[in-house]
Design a protein that fits this description.
Oligomer: single chain
Number of strands: 0
Helix content: over 70%
Distance between the termini: 13 Å
């Protein structure tokens, strides 16, 4: 179970870093398209990158993995809701939904591991 959790943490953190660093131009366009302010985009980016880093540090420190997973889950829930609100097609909602489910699993498994 521990190896699976580590793999999920690395997968989610890598996905977040890829989207918010490598593909940042796409993020800028999406936020503009949805009519969301620049300050919100910047805040979401800071939070997502912070939570992703917490997932990686949480490989050794389980409480950080719990907090990072819960934080990403919250943000992905908001992203999924936003996609639904603007009536995006399902294929555009799947990344946020997938990361939401994985982040919840990461938070729950690490919580269980840290509390015996």
């Amino acid at each position: 179970m521990h190896s699976l959790t580590i793999s999920l943490q690395v997968l989610v953190a890598t996905s977040i870093f890829f989207v918010w660093v490598v593909r940042y131009g796409n993020v800028v366009e999406e936020f503009k398209h949805y009519g969301l302010p620049d300050w919100l985009r910047d805040l979401v980016g800071i939070l997502k990158l912070t939570f992703a880093l917490m997932l990686l540090i949480g490989i050794d420190r389980k409480p950080l993995a719990v907090a990072g997973g819960a934080g990403i889950a919250l943000l992905m829930g908001c992203a999924f809701f936003t996609h639904m609100r603007v009536k995006n097609p399902l294929f555009k909602m799947l990344p946020s939904l997938t990361l939401l489910v994985l982040s919840i699993a990461i938070a729950l498994i690490n919580y269980r591991l840290s509390n015996g």
